[in-house]
From TrEMBL, chains A, B:
SUPFAM superfamilies: Winged helix' DNA-binding domain. Gene3D superfamilies: Winged helix-like DNA-binding domain superfamily/Winged helix DNA-binding domain. PANTHER family: TRANSCRIPTIONAL REGULATOR-RELATED, WINGED HELIX-TURN-HELIX TRANSCRIPTIONAL REGULATOR, RRF2 FAMILY. This is Rrf2 family transcriptional regulator. Transmembrane segments: none annotated. Residues 133-151 have a biased composition (Basic and acidic residues). Residues 133-157 are annotated as: Disordered. PROSITE patterns: HTH_RRF2_1, HTH_RRF2_2. It comes from Streptomyces bambusae.
Length: 157, 157
DNA sequence: GAGGCAATACTCGGATATGGGATGTCCGAGTACTTTGGG
DNA sequence: CCCAAAGTACTCGGACATCCCATATCCGAGTATTGCCTC
């Protein structure tokens, strides 16, 4: 799993802490955690294409959340950054070689793919069940000053 | 996720179909599904290191299951082939940059990592709950002749 | 004919290349602010 | 003093390099079989 997912999740929470009235540029978000600016911008563009954040060019421009954190699930972010394709992709090797004659009917999904799919479904369900607001609340419980620190730092630049 | 997982899972079921008395070489297993022999051998070696299969060199050598299919979970195979490390690895970016002063205590796990870890735990639980014997039964339900076809093909070579 | 021995063929196991995608970087198009000149 | 217009600085967005790991391959060490030679 790419590390862009971690960056995107943290950035979304940071955007929520920055507030809905203030747009934050990719450069600011990257500097906050010492990340490569242009590459984080790439991930943010993916979030923008998915409708999770909105973007604005020019001075006072940047990114801001397109909707409340409570309406954004972890699944939304992961799908936006990593792509919609499943992690386990069945290549239907059962149909190849001597084992897979044309006589057999492959209407049913491969048993291996079924089993792996069940596991991946459980993963996706758990991701979809958790909103970014849950993450934000937990983070604030651990570091209550984090939101203000970020806002102060943004205001001082 | 690497495609070696799919190959390993199918190969384990094939080994069960071949029977416990007969060792099957990596070349035979690969030819059965038109896979690159040497690379499949690599995955089988990983299974051997994990104690899922046993290996024997020389003529009449090859691989065979180290224990019944019912005692092998999907999780065992995935961990053996893909490695034990988690798919989502937290880089602790919250500690980097201006956002992460030394004043903050990082005893608690990052909220993002916690949330992603819950999802990955659900995935692992589902994988651990399914045994390879379940997969075999489902596969035989779809293609009852598959075991005999494989045994006949192995005997004819 | 029986037994031992050498030759052989086959296997795993690890060391060695290669290609594609994730990672990282750079520049152009566009926008809002600022400044400056004129009315 | 007010307004307009040009200049400027800042932003996103996509095109362009680079690096690492999954993929793929090859060769050596070891073993059971097989055939042969000797007794």
């Amino acid at each position: 799993m790419g590390e862009g997912v971690e960056w995107a999740l943290h950035s979304c929470v940071n955007l929520a802490w920055a507030g809905p009235d203030r747009a934050v540029s990719a450069a600011r978000l990257a500097a906050w955690h010492d990340l490569p600016t242009a590459y984080l911008n790439k991930q943010l563009q993916a979030l923008a294409r998915a409708g999770i954040v909105t973007s604005a060019p020019g001075p006072r421009g940047g990114f801001r959340l397109a909707r409340p954190l409570a309406d954004i699930s972890l699944m939304d972010v992961v799908a936006a950054v990593e792509g919609p394709e499943e992690a386990f992709r069945c290549a239907e090797i059962r149909q190849q070689g001597p084992g897979g004659g044309p006589a057999a009917s492959y209407a049913a999904e491969c048993a291996v793919a079924q089993a792996m799919g069940r596991a991946e479904l459980a993963w996706r369900r758990e991701l979809a069940a958790q909103s970014l607001d849950d993450v934000r609340q937990q983070a604030e419980r651990q570091a209550p000053d984090a939101p203000r620190q970020l806002r102060d730092w943004l205001a001082s630049r």
